[in-house]
Amino acid sequence: MVIKNHASYSWAEQGYIYLWTLFAVALAGVVLAGVGPMWQIESQREKEIELLYVGDQFKRAIESYHISSSGKAKRYPESLEQLLEDRSSLVIKRHLRKIFLDPMTNSHDWGLIEKAGSGITGVYSKSDKIPLKRANFPEQYSAFSEAQSYKDWKFVHATGAASGTDSKQSTTSKSGLQNATPTNPFAGDKATAGSNPLSPNQPANSANPFTQNP
Prior knowledge:
The protein is of the alpha+beta class. About 35% of the residues lie in helices and about 10% in strands. It has a four-stranded antiparallel beta sheet with strand order 3-2-1-4. Strand 1 (about 110-115) and strand 2 (about 120-125) form a beta hairpin. The protein is elongated. The N and C termini lie far apart (about 70 Å).
């Protein structure tokens, strides 16, 4: 009789353990279902910060190339590679330290904005995704608040934009660039929105002005 009672208790205990296991699995599923979308949103916000930083770097490099171009008629680069090695004068100049990845597409295939007969005046991401960020942009990028996709985040040198531009697909060479995974060393720093601490000739320890506001 004692043996029978012991067996019944053992089966009961196993039943409770099984039910608690099912409950734990179900609870974990609910938690993961809630955390998943939150993680995706946070990841997208981080990519937006990176895109703002990288796009701004391209814009400033293009501006530097334009300012330093020789001759009466100022010119823009004919390719993004010319920002790495500007051979338009006797002294080779570097306006950009590398061709950055587009964090939204994870590729070097940037959309290029060109001024007819003058060269590349700006870049933009080819991502069709809808931006999360809708406010608190620096003044020069205030139009981004109305963007329908990241394609509308156009990082253009003001002179080129004022003269009218047309877009074409990037044919940037991928050689030697695939392993140059960009990191944003300024993501942990704070800066006042609308400030402009990044200049083409400034050391790469300046703060990222896009990290403060979502």
